[in-house]
Amino acid sequence: MVPFRFFAFNTQPTRVAASSRLSVVLLLLLFSLGVAQAQQPVGSTGAAETDLPDPNAFRKVDQQPKVLNIDEVKDEIEYPSEAKKKKIEGRVILKVLVDEEGRPIKHVMLKSPHPMLTRAAVEGLYLLRFSPAIKDGEAIKFWAVVPFDFKRR
Question: Would 5 be classed as within a structural domain?
Fold first, then answer.
C-alpha cells in the first residue's frame, strides 16, 4: 500500500500578467469550441437537427409509414452467435425516423434485452425501406416503431 502524502502549496497570492490571463481565457474558449464541434454528430449540420420531428411528440398523419421489405431483411439479420451461446433472446424495439423517401435516417432504442441484440437490430434497421408517412397528400418525416424479435431455435 502506498502511504498517503500531503503536499504543501504556496498560499501566497501571486501576480499574473494580463497577457497570461488573456492567453488562458483564449485557450479555454478555443477548447470549448473544439469540444462543441467534436460533440456534433458526423454528417450533421446542426440546423438540420432542429428540423427533425420530436420522437416523443404526437403527430396525426393520414398514413403512417409501413415496412416494405421486412421479409428480405429478416434473412439478412444475423442472430449474434455469442448471444446464442449465452442463451440471450428477446425483443428489441427501435423508434426510427423515416424520411420523405421512405429511408430510415435516425433511430432511438426504446427497449432491448441485451446490447448484442441491439447492435444486430440496428444493422438490420438501416436495410429496411418504408412507404413514407403522408399528411395532407404530402410525404413527411415521421417516427415509426419497429420491433425485432430474437428467439433461439
Answer: no
Mean pLDDT of the chain: 77
Instruction: Give the chain's domain count.
Output: 1
- Residue 64 lies inside a defined structural domain of this protein: yes
Q: Which of 40-44, 90-94, 147-151 has the lowest mean pLDDT?
A: 40-44
The predicted model scores a pTM of 0.64
**153: part of which helix (H) or strand (E)?**
none
Host domain of residue 112? 60-150
Question: Is residue 131 included in any domain, yes or no?
Answer: yes
How far from chain centre, in Å, is Cα 140? 21
The H-assigned helical ranges of 80-148 are 81-85, 115-125
Contact between residue 132 and residue 42 where contact means Cβ atoms under 8 Å apart: no
The two counts, helices (H) then strands (E), for the chain are 5, 7
Number of CB atoms found within 10 A of residue 8's CB:
5
CATH of the domain at 93: 3.30.2420.10
